[in-house]
What we know:
By secondary structure, this protein is an alpha/beta fold.
Amino acid sequence: VLVKVHAAGINPVDVYIREGAFMNLPPLPRILGKEVAGIVETIGPEVQNYKVGDRVTCCLPLDGGYAQYVACDESKAIPLSETLSFSQGASLYVAYFVAYRALVTKCNVQEGELLLVHGASGAVGVAATQIAKARGLKVVGTASTEAGMETSKIAGADFVFNHSEEGYLADAYSVTGNRGFDVIVENCADCNLGSDFLMLGQSGRIAIVGTRSPLKPPPHNPKLVEVNPRSLIYTEGRVFGVKLLGVTQEEFNIYSKAVVSGIEEGWLRPIIAQEYKLAQAPEAHKRIMSQGASGKLVFNLAM
Length: 303
């Protein structure tokens, strides 16, 4: 389907690709952007599920979203409800698929479990909170600003702590009755993974969904994280890496159905922090890499 783009999501991975922060980089030139929302302009002869004029979210694992038009395989499109704006529609793929993969596919969360979302005010943190609450978990979130803490509360967190304040880990741990968390979703592993090990309960699971540390081939030396492995011996805990590109087509179908159901049921609502013009990409990239997230950043092509 050819889609006229109304909004495009902005994600940290866009910055990492531009900065060359990965071992394997895509060939240049490259149009960044992994998710857009818009209206179907034209369909190919084999398209069955969409027609001209449909509102859709396009998921773009191989990028291309910073554009006025996007060609998207039908299998990577999601119908966009009229109840969401285009900006919200451009927030459904990266954040919600990563959060769902972390919580459900990797950590197999169960109703009644205790979840710590380390960095709960960004797009993935909001998505993880909403998915977890819909599945009956108790959620503790952290953020670094008052605005971020409020965003986490709006997303549904039961408790929110300021991770820029000394002693917040002890306060968060006390919520568990000092037995530790069943699951931790970690958005900044290069900062927090060592303490995450100490926050786990018995058979706890950590899902690493983000880090600011680049991974480049030698002679580059990545930032190292100090951990106490005895923590995992004591809890028999597990640590999972979460990679969006690891999603199979079968998993994609499961995740997209879960997203559509969440929208229909009313609990899935992306929170938009700020909209930018496409020409403001440099400013947007600086903003998304700064501390103090309070929702999703998007390009609004109508601006």
